[in-house]
Specification:
cell membrane, 106 residues, transmembrane, single chain, membrane, transmembrane transporter activity
């Protein structure tokens, strides 16, 4: 169940990262509310995950999901550049996430 909590926490991290952009510096009410709620829930699910997963693994995967998700969201939602170097870098983060998962007992 800890891995499910960690995936949910990562998805919520992506949600609040996108929300930061949409809130326009917390000047728009509903995107700001959505962002803050996603932040809180992300931390709650991360806290549940680290009850049984190693802290370093859980935190690195959580931030990796957030980084990859935010980069991909930026490319698709906000038309940010998808250069070859950027895509290779995202792929390296994904490889790190997979490696950490494989190195951690279930």
């Amino acid at each position: 169940m800890a891995w499910v909590f960690l995936l949910i926490a990562g998805a919520l991290e992506v949600t609040w990262a996108v929300g930061l952009k949409l809130s326009d510096g917390f000047t728009k009410l509903w995107p700001s509310v959505w962002t803050i709620a996603a932040m809180i829930l992300s931390y709650v699910f991360l806290a549940q995950a680290v009850k049984s997963l190693p802290l370093g693994t859980a935190y690195a995967i959580w931030t990796g999901i957030g980084a990859v998700g935010a980069a991909v969201a930026g490319i698709f939602l906000f038309k940010e550049p998808a250069s070859a170097l950027r895509l290779v870098s995202i792929s390296l983060i994904v490889a790190g996430i997979i490696g950490l998962r494989l190195a951690t007992p279930a």
